[in-house]
Amino acid sequence: MMNMSFLLLTCQARLLARAGPAGGSRRGQTGRCRADAGCRPTAVTACNDRPVAGRSAGDSKKCAGLTAIQCLLILLPALIVPGGGAAQAGPAAPRADAGKQAEVHRELPAMLKQGRKLLLKGQPAAALEQFQRYVEKHPEDSEGYFWVGTALLEQQKSDAAIGALRKAVELNSARGLDGAQVRVNLGNALLASNRVDEAIVEYKRGIKIDAYEPRAHFNLARALLKKETPYHAAVALTHLNIADKLGLSLPEIWKYRAQAYAMTKRYDEAGKQLSGYLAKLPDTSANAEARRKVNDLINILNNPP
Fold it and tell me: N or C: which end of the chain has fewer CB within 10 A?
């Protein structure tokens, strides 16, 4: 992961150098990131998404020649809270509705119950074994593939998760069924693989099935922000607000709203959202570094060149 302090110092040094009378302020620009900007694939960002495999030689150039707001758009998505809420608000809530059109309820089979317990305990590999055993015995049950895909997604095996979740959708379709949760998880897997347009389609389908599913709105907003336009950012903001009103209590809602406001040049609101995000982070030793990073980002907004 990129060194946040190093990037902030680079940003601030560059901006101070440009703050003389001849340079002037270019606060109103949002711009795009450099092509070599490294970003985590599960984060919403205004730059090209690439996995971070340690710090690259190009890190020192991330903010060269950029305004404070452009630096913010690079650094904000890179903010990862250790052990914090999942950036993708999921996978979707573990409940047995892989084959849901109207409300369809049934008791989970014992093997899936055991797998779900393991998944909730943070043991996705062991859970996957249970789910795969179930699929071997019940190859026509979409619910088994739903849980296989969910466990694979938890292990960040997005390509394999896409295959399993698409199989669940296929089996559902053969029965005239569909499910919001399987669509959300499929969208998450596609987004993790940087297949943004396909992910957007799945999230919208999830919302069409269940407009009250907050994770569908939240993750649709994440995907829309990847389109890197003020229009998509404005639409993303609407869905973030809906997710909030529907009770999704993730601190990341505040972070992504800050990014959406910055992309639509509403910088004062972006600062307020970052302050709200800071207030949502527990003041613990584990979060000390994350809180410092948020404060640094707020300072960038409050002290433009």
Answer: N
Full-model pTM? 0.70
Task: In whole angstroms, give the CA distance from residue 171 to residue 229.
Answer: 36
What Cα–Cα distance (Å) separates residue 201 from each residue in 30, 57, 219, 220? Answer: 27, 36, 11, 9
Distance CA 39, CA 256 (A): 15
Indicate the SS3 state at residue 286.
helix
Is the CB of residue 167 less than 8 Å from the CB of residue 195?
no
Would the CA dihedral through 142, 146, 149, 151 be positive or negative? negative
d(CA 38, CA 47) in angstroms, rounded, equals: 8
Interacting residues of 36 by C-beta distance below 8 A, sequence separation 6+: 56, 58, 61
C-alpha 231, offset from chain centre: 19
Instruction: Give CA torsion, residues 75, 78, 81, 83, to 10 deg.
Output: -170
- 217 touches 187 (CB < 8 A): no
- Which residues, 6+ apart, have CB-to-CB distance to 78 below 8 Å? 1, 2, 4, 39, 40, 43, 45
Beta bridge partners of 50: 39
Q: What are 214-264's pLDDT values in tens digits? A: 999 999 999 999 999 999 999 999 999 999 999 998 888 998 999 999 899
Express each pLDDT in 98-143 by its tens digit. 334 433 445 788 899 999 999 999 999 999 999 999 999 999 999 9
